[in-house]
Amino acid sequence: xxxxxxxxxxxxxxxxxxxxxxxxxxxxxxxxxxxxxxxxxxxxxxxxxxxxxxxxxxxxxxxxxxxxxxxxxxxxxxxxxxxxxxxxxx
Length: 90
Description:
Blueprint: E1 8-14, H1 19-33, E2 38-44, H2 49-55, E3 61-64, E4 70-72, H3 77-84
Parallel strand pairs: 1-2
Antiparallel strand pairs: 1-3, 3-4
C-alpha cells in the first residue's frame, strides 16, 4: 500500500492587472513545473473588502493553509522553498 504525503496548500493574495502579482505567479509556476506537489489558490483581494483592507498595500502575499505565516513580496524561489519548509533559509 502506497503512503501518500499530504499536499502543501497555499493562498496567493493579489489582484488583476498587478505586475508584481504576475511575477509572483511566475515564481510559483516555475516551482510547480519542477515537481513540487503544492496546491495554490489565487485569491483576488478586490472581491472581498476585508482582504482589500488587509492586503491592499502589500500584495502579492503568499500564505500557507496550515498556519498564519505570510510571505510578502519580494520573494524568489529560494524564499518560497524555505517558507514551504522544503529548504532551510539561506
